[in-house]
Design a protein that fits this description.
With 246 residues, the chain is mostly helical. It has 12 helices and 2 strands. It folds into 3 domains: 3-68, Multidrug-efflux Transporter Regulator, Chain: A, Domain 2; 73-120; 123-243, Globin-like, CATH 1.10.490. Strands 1-2 form a two-stranded antiparallel ribbon. Helix 3 (41-55) packs across helix 4, helix 8 (153-172) packs antiparallel against helix 9 and helix 9 packs across helix 12. The chain is globular, with a radius of gyration of 22 Å. It starts with a helix and ends with a helix. Keywords: Activator, DNA-binding, Transcription, Transcription regulation. InterPro entries: DNA-bd_dom_put_sf, MerR-type_HTH_dom, MerR_fam, TipA-like_antibiotic-bd, TipAS_dom. It comes from Paenibacillus plantiphilus. Residues 1-69 form the HTH merR-type domain.
Length: 246
């Protein structure tokens, strides 16, 4: 199949397929004398794997390492994809249920506890791992993932609950000046929590705060705890980083 045919079949852009070829992730089985890329069935199977990994938010660099490893087992990878996607579906189902409950709560039809308002949110995983790796390298992300992977499900849930509680606390402080003692005490707790999961320098911490505002996906998730929280956290994190450089 030619590149345009593959793009139309899969639903990705021709430019994406060209990029995969350029970085050595997905090289066409044949290139004609006139320069046309021709993709084989094996290429399509590999592309399927790549897109499954992308659905799980893995960066292209890591996907390339995985699929090029001699020990790569396609069947085992498919089983893993299925398990992780089922987990993702379960989380989305719980979030949808939370939305339905919140609509009823907003209309005054049911009561809703604070805990119920955040069912389905999972801050124990970073859905924007690619951006974190690209901006600050692999160390903090890998250490964070390794520490989370070493936790039991109970410990992971406890960490998620702790993060939710801290987001809620910071939301209650968002009307204070970012440099105030109250705000700085709260943001220090955030810095300490992140460093229990990974290894964030003050520069990385400040950069992460900026991403909370620059990336609308972060902003939307964080501001669910209180409008303007992402902006407040960015400013408070910048003050904390600059003040503690020594």
């Amino acid at each position: 199949m030619k590149v345009k045919e593959v793009a139309d079949l899969v639903g990705v852009s021709v430019r994406t397929l060209h990029h995969y070829d350029e970085i050595g992730l997905l090289t066409p089985g044949e290139i004609t004398d006139t320069g046309y890329r021709l993709y084989s069935n094996d290429n399509l199977e590999l592309l399927q794997q790549i897109l499954f990994f992308r659905e799980l938010d893995l960066p292209l660099k890591q996907i390339k390492e995985i699929v090029n490893d001699e020990s790569f087992d396609r069947e085992a990878a498919l089983s893993m994809h299925r398990r992780l996607l089922l987990e993702k579906r379960d989380r989305l189902d719980r979030m949808i249920a939370t939305i339905d409950k919140t609509l009823l709560y907003t209309r005054g039809e049911i009561a809703m506890t604070n805990k119920e308002k955040f069912e389905g949110f999972d801050f124990s995983r970073n859905p924007y791992e690619q951006e974190a790796r690209e901006r600050w390298g692999d160390r903090a992300v890998d250490e964070s993932n390794a520490r989370l992977a070493g936790m039991s499900k109970g410990q992971q849930q406890a960490m998620s609950d702790e993060m939710t509680a801290l987001y809620t606390k910071l939301a209650s402080l968002r009307h204070h000046a970012p440099a105030s003692s109250e705000a700085q005490a709260g943001i220090k707790e955030w810095y300490d929590m992140l460093n229990r999961m990974g290894c964030y320098s003050l520069d990385a911490f400040k950069g992460l705060g900026q991403m909370y505002v620059d990336d609308e996906r972060f902003t939307k998730n964080i501001d669910k705890f209180g409008e303007g929280l992402a902006l407040f956290m960015r400013d408070a994190m910048a003050v904390y980083a600059d003040h503690n450089r020594g």
